[in-house]
């Protein structure tokens, strides 16, 4: 008897290795997968603007990074004793206007350089709802707790998203022709928007992915949303808020991503990296014991092996 409907992601010709450069942009689900990539020694940069949710803000983030565009006075606002960027997450905010702008500019410059030879860009859309600052007629990435009366809230249309990303692709490939886009829809539900609004929002995102993938061929698709909603579909796979996938769910999604996009050799490197990380966390009761000295020697052997396999420059020792 089958107790689950199993979701098997398409391999889609993607082959991730530790020599690839990966950029991840989007919702907090992006951070969850990015943490896995960091842990297992992949070369990646994630969320140079911080967590973003809607397709327009994510596209703007990528365009700023491609163009190495500097944040200006028009892009920031003062509220609740802090300076904020309209396009960035609040982690970039600061009591100093100059420091806030410098925080944003530094990450844009880093991402600009990284994008030159990036291999894959993972984009995670969270919601199709956007907030437009009425006074400046700009879509914001974060409202920074400013009253809702300052914004116009609406649901994007499928064709708006498709057109925006076709334009983005042209700009991206003019800067880096080899970069490939992997889209995914976040399984995290935006419950504050309303249960029906969340469903409509996710539907728009899925339809936009379908247009971009099947009609224009501009992207790949990884089914993180379907894995959670169709295969796991049980609240034991969610955190206490019943909205965010649990660590177990993230682990299952990660394993499916590895199965779909990596070779056995790459998975073996990940296994070795995991072993090394856990050995490094070990704290001995008797540091001078023969057992701990043997443990240290084994660590050195694994470390040397990893340096040979994936390089020292992104192996955190």
What does this structure look like?
- The protein is an alpha/beta fold and 317 residues long.
- It has 2 domains: 242 residues, 3-Layer(aba) Sandwich (Rossmann fold); 55 residues, no CATH class.
- The protein has 9 helices and 10 strands.
- The strands form 3 sheets. The protein has a 5-stranded parallel beta sheet, with helices on both faces. A 3-stranded antiparallel beta sheet has the order 7-6-8, with no helix packed on it.
- Helix 1 links the parallel strand 1 and strand 2.
- The protein is globular.
- The N and C termini lie far apart (47 Å).
- The model has no long low-confidence stretch (mean pLDDT 93).
Number of domains: 2
Write down the overall geometry: globular
- End-to-end Cα distance, whole Å, is 47 Å
The top level CATH class name of the largest domain: Alpha Beta
Strand content: 5-15%
Please state the CA-atom Rg, rounded to the nearest Å. 21 Å
Individual helix count: 9
How many strands, which pairing sense, and closed or not: the largest β-sheet? 5 strands, parallel
Q: Oligomeric state of the chains?
A: single chain
Number of strands: 10
The CATH homology group name of the largest domain: SGNH hydrolase
As laid out across the biggest beta sheet, the strand order is 2-1-5-9-10
């Amino acid at each position: 008897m089958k107790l689950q409907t199993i979701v098997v992601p398409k391999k889609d010709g993607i082959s991730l290795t530790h020599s690839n450069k990966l950029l991840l942009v989007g919702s907090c689900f992006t951070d969850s997968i990015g943490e896995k990539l960091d842990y297992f020694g992949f070369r990646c940069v994630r969320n140079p603007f911080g967590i973003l949710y809607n397709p327009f803000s994510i596209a703007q983030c990528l365009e700023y990074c491609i163009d190495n565009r500097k944040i200006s006075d028009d892009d920031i606002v003062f509220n609740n004793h802090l300076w904020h960027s309209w396009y960035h997450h609040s982690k970039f905010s600061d009591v100093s206007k100059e420091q806030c702008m410098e925080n944003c500019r530094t990450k844009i410059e880093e991402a600009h350089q990284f994008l030159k030879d990036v291999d894959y860009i993972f984009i995670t859309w969270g919601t199709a709802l956007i907030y437009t600052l009425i006074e400046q007629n700009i879509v914001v990435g974060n409202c920074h707790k400013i009253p809702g009366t300052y914004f116009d809230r609406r649901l994007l249309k499928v064709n708006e998203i498709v057109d925006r990303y076709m334009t983005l692709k042209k700009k991206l490939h003019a800067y880096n022709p080899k970069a490939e886009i992997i889209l995914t829809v976040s399984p995290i539900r935006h419950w504050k928007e309303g249960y029906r609004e969340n469903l409509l929002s996710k539907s728009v995102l899925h339809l936009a992915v379908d247009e971009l993938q099947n009609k224009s061929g501009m992207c790949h698709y990884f089914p993180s949303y379907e894995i959670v909603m169709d295969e796991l579909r049980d609240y034991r796979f969610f955190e206490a808020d019943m909205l965010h996938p649990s660590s177990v769910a993230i682990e299952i999604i990660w394993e499916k991503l590895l199965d779909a996009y990596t070779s056995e050799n790459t998975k073996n490197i990940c296994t070795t990296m995991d072993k090394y990380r856990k050995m490094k966390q070990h704290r001995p009761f008797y540091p001078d014991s023969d057992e701990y000295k043997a443990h240290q020697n084994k660590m050195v052997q694994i470390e040397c092996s990893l340096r040979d396999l994936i390089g020292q420059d992104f192996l955190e020792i």
